[in-house]
Amino acid sequence: MRVPVTAEDLPASPGTVRGKARLPAGTTITAVHTALPAHRYAQDDLTEPIGDLCLAPGADRALLRRLHASAGVRARHLALPIARYAALRDFGQANDAWMAAGLELGEEAIAGALKEAGLEPADVDLLVCTSVTGIAAPSLDARLAGRLGMRPDVKRVPVFGLGCVAGAAGLARLHDYLRGHPGGTAVLLAVELCSLTLQRRDDSQANLVAGALFGDGAAALVARAGTPAGPRASGPTVVATRSRLYPDTEQLLGWSIGTTGFRVVIGAGIPGIVRSHFGRHLRGFLAEYGLTVEDIGTWVCHPGGPKVLSAVADTLDLPDNALAPAWNSLAAVGNMSSVSVLHILQTVRESARPEPGSWGLLMAMGPGFCSELVLLRW
């Protein structure tokens, strides 16, 4: 059933044309490249080792096994061999592992994306780097710029705290920058090594859910202002973006940070927020550009988990296969936080390229609680 769009869902726009917002200058996505750790495991092979890490000896594993079986995940990549996680005794050791693996994967992701775009590291004007699974100063982007050969005057924006929404929000902020820098080139790097945040001897449901759902990886996206010519500039183009914070939801998702590092917070109310608010706001955003849900041919949706994906499909009344790319990514590599929407976008570009001129929507949700929408045109 379609939910009507109300006046409050239509943001004020200083310029409209026949009821539609004026479309800003587009940003072309010229490449997306995902880098995954070499340590790949079937979900069934991780259940008991993760139980050894998270549960006390002899503890009941019924809930753990149910969560692993129902997570929608068939396989995942981990930053380290699973046998090495027991040796990480504190946050410092886990963060050191994040730094080493993050630099390696980040370099691979950026180099691969630039090669696909036909560009050199010196062509990059802005580098945005997001991660919520480790911390460093100098940040990953500062350490990678020299290793890759970027210019000394490259602009850098390290981002922490956006979590799963950062892949979509990072792309949106690249678009904001490039609208004011004609001819510019910007790179978004997302690095998430979720397995390194797993808490030892923590049998909370949130920690067990994280241990069943999240995977590790990195992805880089290259975007250029306007519509560059040539076969490498096949899009899609970012047309518009929209951010949304949901009031009084700060405790739903994020980290509780202490001496052991990042302890995950995952509230049971997230699917309810999606059903109550997300669909209405999304429809309002599309209506501003004269579009409806039915006009969107390609959905690039962050795979928050089976309950979240089902809530998105229900509130938007989507066809059964509309979120297939998200379900497939979840099954193949797990939820990689901010990396996931970029991984899905790469898959869509490579294996199911939409028809030229068709519309797409890239979307994600994260701590805040918040959502980010990116309207695409192929």
Describe the protein's architecture and organization.
- Mean pLDDT is 90; it is low at 1-19.
- The chain is built from 10 helices and 15 strands.
- The chain starts with 15 loop residues before the first strand and ends with a strand.
- It has helices at residues 43-54, 62-70, 91-117, 140-148, 166-179, 205-213, 270-288, 306-316, 324-333, 339-351, and strands at 16-17, 20-21, 27-35, 39-42, 75-78, 126-130, 155-159, 185-193, 216-225, 237-245, 253-258, 261-266, 296-301, 359-366, 370-377.
- α1 (43-54) runs antiparallel to α6 (205-213), α2 crosses α6 (205-213) and α3 crosses α4 (140-148).
- It is of the alpha+beta class and 378 residues long.
- The radius of gyration is 20 Å and the shape is globular.
- A 9-stranded mixed β-sheet has the order 7-6-8-9-3-10-15-14-13, with helices on both faces. A two-stranded antiparallel sheet has the order 1-2.
Q: Topology, please?
A:
Blueprint: E1 16-17, E2 20-21, E3 27-35, E4 39-42, H1 43-54, H2 62-70, E5 75-78, H3 91-117, E6 126-130, H4 140-148, E7 155-159, H5 166-179, E8 185-193, H6 205-213, E9 216-225, E10 237-245, E11 253-258, E12 261-266, H7 270-288, E13 296-301, H8 306-316, H9 324-333, H10 339-351, E14 359-366, E15 370-377
Parallel strand pairs: 6-7, 6-8, 13-14
Antiparallel strand pairs: 1-2, 3-9, 3-10, 4-5, 8-9, 10-15, 11-12, 14-15
